[in-house]
Amino acid sequence: MRSTVLSHTRRWLGASALALLVGIGGVSTAYVLTGQAATAQVQPAAQIVVPPTAVPQAGFADLVEAVKPAVVSILVEAEDSSRTVQRGGGQFQFQFPDLPPDHPFHDFFNQFGNGQGGGGQQGAPEPRRYMAAGSGFVISGDGYIVTNNHVVADATKVTVVFDDGTEKEAQIVGTDERTDIAVVKIEGTDLPFVKFDEAPPRVGDWVVAIGNPFGLGGTVTAGVISASGRNIGGSNYGDFLQIDAAVNTGNSGGPAFNSKGEVVGVNTAIYSPNGGNVGIAFAIPAATVKSIAGQLIENGSVTRGYLGVSIQDVTRDIADGVGLANAKGAIVREPAADGPAAPAGVKSGDIITAVDGTPIDDALGLSRTIANKAPDSTVELTIWREGKEIKLSVKLGKLNEEVADNGQNAPTPPAPVAPTPSSVGITLVPNSDGSGGLLIQDIDASSQAASKGLAVGDSILEVDNKPVSSVQDFESALDAVKARGLNTALVKASRDGEARFIGLPLGN
C-alpha cells in the first residue's frame, strides 16, 4: 500500500483477540418450578431489555456476492531503472592472484564474470527486477480495469486474476501519476463490471473494501467513511475520502463500495506509524476516478487546465489585511509571465474566491478546480481586490507537467545602504541583489513580525499590494493601511526566491 504519510512496507501485522467472560454474582442457582409457579418468569430488577426495533444489520454478504466477480488481483512484473543490480565482479571480488592457471576454481570464478584466471568480463549494471501485487476492478464489459498508477508503474508484465482463479494478461492503457490512477485492459466480452456512484457519499455512510492485501485475494473489510476532502502529503490534488475499513499492503487500486454496490472510491493510501492497518485509509473519490479513467481510455493520457499563477491559502490575518470577511480563497503570489492569467488582468495580491460561481476554500481547492477544467475553456474568476469584488474571464491553457526553470541572471547589485529600524520591530535595508524590496537584517523576537514567521534574510517586496524599496515606502504603506481603519497589513515577503503573503498585525 502506498503511503506518503505512509510507507512502502511488507511487514505483517499480527492480530490478537481478547475474549471476556462475565458472570453475574458469585453463586449459580437452578430453579425447578412446577404447577402454576412454572408459568412465572424470574427477571432481575435491573435487567436491560433491548427494544425490538434495535435489529442489527443483516451484513454485506449479498452485496459482496454480487460485486466480487468484478474485483481482481493485479500481479506485476516490473523493472526499477533507478536501482540496478551488478552482474559479475561487482558482487563477488575473489582475490587469488597466485591461483594456478589449470586450477578448477577458475571455472567457478568465471561463471560470475570475475575475470580470475580466465578472462571473464564484468557485467554491466541491469535494472532491478521485482514483483508486486495490488488490486483493481472491471468498469466495462469489454475489459477496462481501474487500478493505481503506483501498482503498475515500471511494469513489464501485468496479470489480472479474477475471483474464480482465471488469469489474463493485461495491457496498460494509460496512467496518471498526479491522481495515482491507471487503466489496464484485458481481452473479453460481457465481463462482469461495476459502476461508479453518481452522488458524493456522506460521512458516516457504510463502505466495503475488497482487495488483495498481502496476496490474500478477495479479502472483504467493512467500515464507514470517516471524513471527506482530506489532503494528504505528497498529493497534488487532495480531496481524499478517509475510511476506517481495514486496508493494507496489496489493497492499492481496489474498490470501496457503498451499500448499493457502487464504487465510491479507489483505495490508494494508508496512514500507518508501524506499517499495519490502524483504521485510517484514504480512497480517491469516484468522481475523480471516473473523469481520469475516461480520459485515459479515450486518449491514453490526461490533460488539465492551466491558469498560470502561484498561490497560497488565505489566513485570517491575510483576510483582515485586505478587509475580506471570510478567511477563504487563494491569494495570488505571482502570475506567470507566459500564463493565461496575467494577460487577462490577474495581479499579485488578488484573492480568487470563486471559479464559475463555485466557491474556492483554499489554494488546493483552486488547483483542483482548474485542473478539472478542459484546456482552452474559459472560466470566470471572482476576485477580491482593493476592498471590492470583481470578475475576470480567463481562457485556460494546458498544464505542462514538467515546469521549466526560467531563472534569469541577477543584475549588478547597488551600493550597500545603512539598515534602518521600522515601527513593527524589524530592521530593514534595501535588497543588495538588485531584485527590489527590503531585506530584513534584524528582527525583535517579541514582535508580531517574528510571531508571523518573518525572519532575518527575508525580503519584504510589497505592503498593501504596493512595492516598497525604502523604509519610508514601508512606513507610508503601513500608515495608509491604518488610515483605512484596518489593523492588519498585507505584506508580500520572499524567502529563498519563493514569495508568500503574510497578514501583519499593526497593534502592540
Automatic annotation (TrEMBL):
Residues 404-423 are annotated as: Disordered. InterPro entries: Chloro_Bact_Ser_Proteases, PDZ, PDZ_sf, Pept_S1C_Do, Peptidase_S1_PA, Peptidase_S1C. SMART domains: PDZ (SM00228). Gene3D superfamilies: 2.30.42.10, 2.40.10.120. Residues 296-387, 424-496 form the PDZ domain. The keyword Magnesium does not apply. Keywords: Hydrolase, Protease, Repeat, Serine protease, Signal. PANTHER family: PEPTIDASE S12, PROTEASE DO-LIKE 8, CHLOROPLASTIC. This is Serine peptidase. It comes from Devosia yakushimensis. The lineage of its organism: Bacteria, Pseudomonadati, Pseudomonadota, Alphaproteobacteria, Hyphomicrobiales.
